[in-house]
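Same chain as my last thread, 503 residues:
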Amino acid sequence: MSMATEKVTRFRPGTFVLPTPRRARGSSMSVAVAAPKRMCAAVSADPKYVRKLRRTGVACLVGWGLVERVDVSVVALLISEMATNAIVHTCGKTVSLSLSYAEGDGEIRIEVRDGTPGRRPRLLAPDDDQEHGRGVLIVAALARSWGTGEEGACTWCTVPVADPPSVPACARRALPPAESGPGSGRGTGSGTATGTTNSTYRKDSMREHDVITVACWDFENDSAPDGKNWHLAHELLADHQPDIFLRQGMTHGRTMGGRRLRVSEDLLGMRGALSAPNRNAVAYRDIATAVFVRPEVFRILAVYPVAKPWWLHPAHVVLRFGECPTPLNVVSFSLCGFDPHTRESEARWLTTLAEPGAVTLAGGNTNSYPYRPEPVELPDWAQVTDLAHECGRTVRTRDGWIADTRPDEVLAMAGYRDLARDLCARIGRSKALAPTAGFRGLGRGGPERVDRVYGVGLSEVVTSVEVVNTHQTREVSDHALVLVRLHRARLAARLGAEQAQAA
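reply #2:
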């Protein structure tokens, strides 16, 4: 491929740039013309900028429309390893990354230049107890081909690109059957969740086998329409390797044919199911929720996208944990933000999943407050200056306007346990009750714990609840990331593994 004829595109991390279709001569139909593409980016030779190059590369794949045809996780890992090697083992002041692709080549070429010839990367054979020396081994194992050029100043590799699909996306994303055994297998049952994942799940090398991690996070309007901080959010999530992710605020989840959903699946190594569209809402107010699951751990038995009387429809899936006979209901929700009566009605709908024998995990943005006293006090409405916020978060009683706690009361009455509050009562983990939102909202009464995860039949299964509130999570959203960890063996016992083995 001649460099003189390549199309050069520069990307900023997190920016979505889509290929511009061209019109075929003599036709009114827009047809994408295959043209060589190239992306270049350069950073200072500092390890902290490796993440920036990785995010730029992934954004490039999104912009070229290749996320369904290439293993995004492999490309991200190759960029990380090659850039890290260039920074650590050379003395150059800058490191540059370039990606090039032409339709018909069947592969993407990744190049990393450090500007210091004379030192070629070598394949090593490190001992098991050595922490370093495996970067080139990883590149050689994952890439289709690799090599060096310019006397060692450039390292390159190629990654295969699948042919364009000839079947509709909905049929292409049919979920394969799962393998047998608790917590194993890559597929689902007869569910209708969308998407595929190409990521390799390396749980045994990342954390203990006995923990199931549940993440709950409201990205708050998808971290802006241009994708700003969207990739940062996924990198932060990937660090925790969730098995279940309850996602709120997917403002753009249905746009571009659901492309963001599929990219999320690739970045996280999970499979996602969106909530049903709200036909009565204008497009920019139909903010989707979603449930993502790790296919190596859970099978999706069913997805219920049927419209419900909600302001924003919840995502409801039914999961199978290994061969446990009892299914697990999982719901991601965002209760109404402006009407307490609607919130109460939505909470009452959730009670239908708390019937005897049911095991349910439900979490999201409640837009309301806990009804029991907690370390974080309720807002002092006399000090709140945002009157619209006060109107949406209060209810009128004989004593005047008070904070709305009715959704929490309704769920508790039905048998739901606030998993953070329950853990605090059992083992005294008061940090689990830290505020989760309202850090930016001046005049709204201060930070409050409005993002909560509830469970039916899961009280003794929870081992920890963590509120991740850092400067990086605040870059993504005004809502903190909530992590709930479940004891794997206890969850299996609760879902009837012992009874299944006895039968």
